[in-house]
Fold these 4 entries.
Entry 1:
Amino acid sequence: MNAAHVHIIVTHIPLIGLIVSFVLLGYHAWRPNPDIRRLALLGFVVSGLFALAADLSGEGAEEMVERLSGVMEAAIDRHEDAAGFALTSTMVTGVTALLLLVPALAAGRLARPLLVVLLIAGVVGLGAVGYTANLGGKIRHTEIAGAQTAGAAAVGLSSDNGGKRGDSHDDDDDD
């Protein structure tokens, strides 16, 4: 397993973790259950930690893929810029959830303001992580970007004919 592989694996966890945590928190709002609430909060904390791991593994992944043919530095830069904001918002979510796991804070006057911060940071974090993941996918998956790859152009594959070889004209038309 190399640095790029580790980065790809680790980056999926914050996105899935945030989604699952929101579902659990929603379930807790519908049917209050302290165990479900703790599990949701723990999910937010874990998502924050894995967002940090994703950020830390990003440099090694960048060094591996920037040398590959067809990888544009601008795509890496866009992904890296978005990742900074995603990390910050996900870490704020995780730290806020950690504070809400402290019984004295969870039951005190700070509980409601902390929950508001958690929800806002969590929604922002989820959007930022999703956007960052999309940009990361575009680094090597040009089908996401809707662009024609250099390799596809070299063998005559075209995005406007469903990826089939040759031109986009019908071969059945004899006129």
Note: The longest helix spans residues 34-65.
Entry 2:
Amino acid sequence: MEKKWLIILLLTLGLFFPDAIFAETVILKSGKQVVGVISENTDDFIKIQTTDGKDLYYYKNTIRIIKDDAGKIIFPKDYEQKEMLRKRQESIRQFRVRLFNAVTRLRKGEEYIKSGDYVRGYREYINSGLLEITVIFSFLWIIILSGIITGCILLICHLFFKKWRDKTEPSRFKAKDLYAMLVFIFALPWIISLVILGLNYYFADYLNNAVIDPLVISVLLSNLFLVLVCLGFLKSKYKLDNASLGFVSYGYKLNILLPLTLTVAGILVSFLFFLFLNLSGIEPPTHPFEPLTQNIFSDGNITSVLLFFFLGVVSVPITEEIIFRVFLLNFFRRYTSLLFAVIFSASLFAIIHLSIINAPYYLLIGIILAITYIKTKTIIPCIVTHGLFNSLFLLTRLLTYGIQ
């Protein structure tokens, strides 16, 4: 009974007030709304009779949408698709703007850190909103890169060296250990640096206030962990003693005189290499530690300078020689010829220094150190020579920048 009366009421309203029920709503691009009945509709314009009896004309290029009495959009017919496309394009535009701003903040953060302003640099990292994503993708890239390098090396070993296919000789070095070591070499310093910078940021620049450079601490800790991991492989897993690893001393001739001779040879190689770059019109790239070196010497704090010299002259040489000569060189000697073992280990030594132009120079230095390790059967001359190389670099930088 109630439905019957409701139908009668609606029919009555439709008879006396047709526009109240059967009316369209025209929304102009200016935002104005007009309610009425469209009496004429052409390709260019519409004629709408409003509820007060006026006839209005509107060009269709001034109309945003037209809704019927049920609220359904009847103009334009593809409005929903166009609106979805517009929203998608707007979302893409906003995403590109946010991504650009985030990348800009990351770059500013890197510039601040290079200049020694670690708190502002890490703050820019956080404000970029991409720190977590950058960490994840960087770690994935390190895993992939290490896998590519390992795969290429193992493929060469498998195709060209019989020792790789020889199953009768007990396998001391495993292929998975090479991959794990490469991941550690690439990832550990980077991860520890982020952790140290984060702690320094949350503890209100504690390390800088204590006159200790956070990046120097990061590299020191990275070297410590890398040495422990590498020696853990060699001693705990493979049961190798100090003599087989080369941790023995054969007197001052090998420990002092030979490194001095090798250092002179290295200086000659360096001179010839950079002379070749100058004659070729190639500008030598900046050393990765150059900004850090400049900041420490410019600050003039004796504690930081001494700690930095300890890092470059003692910590880095020990770590790199144990990794590239003691571990990697012995690994490659297990599966390849002696010549290729030297070349492979020296090539990885060049790659880790992150300089394409200087790669031939680091390759030659790596070959010299590898041959020294093989001939002397001790790692001590390599460590001393490496330390002398780095000390000369630091002394030249000290003369360049001075202690302010």
Note: The radius of gyration is 36 Å.
Entry 3:
Amino acid sequence: MKPQFDTEQELLLALQSSIPAIYNAALKYLYTHGKFIGAVRKQVYALGGDDHDVKIVLNEALLEGFSQIQDGVYDPSRSQIITYIVHIATKKFYTKRRAEGRRTAMHLRSMETNEMETNTDPMFEMDRTERIALINKALAGIGSKCQELLQLQGVGFSMSEIAEKLNYKNQNVAKMAAQDCRTKFRKYLTERPELVAEIRML
């Protein structure tokens, strides 16, 4: 028999329970809930996914949502349970698509680089290597953390991903740090016109 929860409070209490039979019944209820499945499917389809993606992200989001409810992270005053877990599912799939897109872009850049290395003469390659070395030297002049932050931003990492990777409190703090790093970098280059001229010459 399909488990039934008449109110949001009943469902929340079941998911907060430490008794496996109770919280498993609540998870089964959500897993077979038409509105929940439909909402996740709509978001995944909108991001270019298919039914296979829906199934995977549905399972992952349910487990993460359940974990957050058990740990007290979920605030019932801010959203309903289904809305909360659909948001988790959307965020998970969006992050996955971004990562896939980044890997594809990096692969294409790698292929282009390999083609350039195959078709260019040694002098061109020497100039290119020197230019990269000069830019890295300039970045090193503003500190290792700023250097890493700007390099991550340059290859397409989001601010939330940068915050997590570099241990900033949140994406807003990372965004402020990025602005500060760019200001430092501009100042560093302004004070070294000979370095800028050398880079432009290559």
Note: Confidence is low (pLDDT under 50) at residues 116-126.
Entry 4:
Amino acid sequence: MAGLAGLAFSQDGRTSTTSERKTLLRQLSKVVAVTAAAVGLALGIAASAAPAHAALPPSSRCAVAKRKAAVKRLRAIDACFAKPPQPPDPECLAKADGKFQREFLSIEARGGCVPETGDAPGVGHLVDQCEAALVQVLPGTCLAAGSECGGLGAFCCTGLVCSGRLGELPHCN
């Protein structure tokens, strides 16, 4: 048995010695190393071609930060809608607005914004309009059979279709 330790069998039944296996492993290691080097070089070239964050103009960085703040406010308002009571607690909504206002002031204090200040109320109003539209389209309820339907608001419950005759209000059927 000790004499068989240096032999390995391939799928076609041939035998190979330990030295042949070592040679194959060395060749395979070289292929892997060359492939890894090529991938590393390609990634390095791709990374160097990508624009650096510092190359973004300050006004653009400010605008992106303000948009992120607006999305955070929308998420905070949605969090107020996600828990009782309904409609949301005014304190929860005020907390979301206060955090948004502070974040806007912080962004504007860094400088580079165009306009420099004063757009928080307008952006806040847009967030409110977006939330109101989403609540209207996705109210979390559905209309039962026979209910008037159509337009914005709740949709017919599963299995029902909003339909009607010309000149009549549509109903869930």
Note: The beta strands are 7-9, 15-17, 142-143, 155-156, 162-163, 171-172.
